[in-house]
Design brief:
Enzyme class: hydrolase
CATH architecture of the largest domain: 3-Layer(aba) Sandwich
Number of strands: 15
CATH topology of the largest domain: Rossmann fold
Pfam families: ACT_6, ACT_PSP_2, HAD
Shape: elongated
Radius of gyration: 27 Å
Strand content: 25-35%
Number of helices: 16
Organism: Kribbella rubisoli
GO cellular component, one term: cytoplasm
Number of domains: 3
Largest sheet: 7 strands, mixed
Helix content: 40-55%
Protein name: phosphoserine phosphatase
Distance between the termini: 64 Å
CATH superfamily of the largest domain: HAD superfamily/HAD-like
CATH class of the largest domain: Alpha Beta
């Protein structure tokens, strides 16, 4: 006698009788235990189970191998439902749950607020692609509302295109990622600094000290939109700082404000073993201090030339430009032993485009239109820690970790 093949086993499993038991009612301790204890007396096999609680309302579903005395069990569960003051339904069928269709994606929807109309529109566009929503769960309720939707049956790229357009119409951030294992394997975060990790642009803060703010800010804006060569624009702006005392760097650093949620993002992911890097078209005199303060592993930026305590209006060494940022990401990945597929890059300007393209996940954070259009996904809320929701980490998990190990 030969052993049954895998196909034969799957066929037999698909044809065997099964029973779906569903409980709904006001949640309280002991309900799930009571139902399972009743089922346990029959020696049944649990094939699948799922439970959710929404505002104190419990929904429990258990899929089991069907007993011969199906009607007797149904009567027993009916009596239990009366005793517990809940509703229990029993439905006989055949086989396991249908497997998810190919083309699995994780869709993250972020709103501030998230309206029912907006979520309905996203669900509608998912349906239009022929995909199915397998599960919805909440990632955060404040300061933004974030939902994660498991979707199957559509090409992720098609879904990303359709939902990006709908997100713009609804005023929502919608991110689509492949639903495979690699989403959970991200291990290196590489961030831009100016207008990403921190609020504002360091070179403009320095220019204000030099009395050249308007001139420098105009050039910065054009460079970030991709209208000027970055290296040329940087050298032009740095030249405006000639003669400025180096003490202005300390004053600027003291005035820097981190993006909301920046400390939470770094603290949470460091707890999980992530490594962090910052790469900037700004200046090492600032970024090195930020890295030390936040516990960031790697940093790369341009270096201002200082002679006799005064800025010369020049930079030292090779310029960290658009291509340089991508090169830095590869370097950081190599030093940390992280495959590029397991990296996340975050930025806002045109000089971040190559870095975002190289990373496993490129996130445009409050970015210029050219960057939003090119990145894997974009976020338009001001909270940097919303990146956590893209990685499958909930606000509740963050708060629990902070309570257990205060920063």
């Amino acid at each position: 006698m030969t052993d049954p093949t895998e196909v034969e086993l799957e066929t037999a499993a698909a044809e065997r009788p099964t029973l779906l038991v569903t409980l709904t009612g006001t949640d309280r301790p002991g309900l799930t235990s009571a139902v399972l204890s009743t089922l346990a007396t029959r020696g049944l096999e649990v094939i699948d189970a799922e439970q959710v609680v929404l505002r104190g309302r419990l929904v429990l579903g258990v899929l089991l191998s069907a007993p011969r005395d199906h009607k007797d069990l149904k009567d027993e569960l009916k009596a239990l439902a009366t005793l517990l003051d809940v509703d229990i339904s029993v439905k006989k069928g055949v086989g396991d749950n249908e497997p998810r269709r190919k083309g699995r994606s994780q869709v993250t929807v972020i709103g501030h607020p998230l309206s029912a109309a907006g979520l309905a529109a996203v669900a509608g566009r998912i349906a239009d692609t022929g995909a199915n929503i397998d599960r919805i769960s909440r990632m955060a309720r404040y300061p933004v509302t974030a939902m994660e939707i498991a979707v199957s049956g559509a090409d992720p790229e098609t879904l990303r295109t359709v939902l990006a357009l709908e997100g713009v119409r609804q005023g929502l951030d919608v991110a689509v990622q492949d639903g495979g294992l690699y989403r959970r394997a991200k291990r290196l975060i590489v961030m831009d600094v100016d207008s990403t990790l921190i609020q504002g642009e360091v070179i403009e803060m320095l220019a204000e000290h030099a009395g050249r703010l308007d001139e420098v800010a105009a050039v910065t804006e054009k460079a970030m939109r991709g209208e000027l060569d970055f290296e040329e624009s940087l050298r032009h702006r740095v030249a405006a700082l000639e003669g400025l005392s180096a003490t202005a760097l300390d004053e600027v650093y003291a005035a820097i404000e981190l993006a909301p949620g920046a400390r939470t993002l770094v603290r949470t992911l460091k707890r999980l073993g992530y490594q962090f890097a910052i790469v900037s078209g700004g200046f090492s005199q600032i970024t090195d201090q930020l890295a030390a303060e936040l516990g960031i592993d790697y940093a790369k930026a341009n270096e201002l030339e200082i002679v006799d305590g005064v800025l010369t209006g020049r930079v030292v060494g090779e310029i960290v430009d658009r291509a340089g940022k991508a090169t830095a990401l590869r370097e950081f990945a190599g030093r940390s032993g992280t495959p590029l597929t397991q990296t996340v890059a975050i930025g806002d300007g045109a000089n971040d485009l190559d870095m975002l393209a190289v990373a496993g996940l490129g996130v445009a954070f409050n970015a210029k239109p050219v960057v939003r259009a090119a990145a894997d996904t974009h976020l338009s809320v001001p909270y940097l820690d919303t990146i956590l929701y893209l990685l499958g980490i909930t606000r509740e998990e963050v708060e629990v970790a902070d309570a257990e190990t205060p920063a």
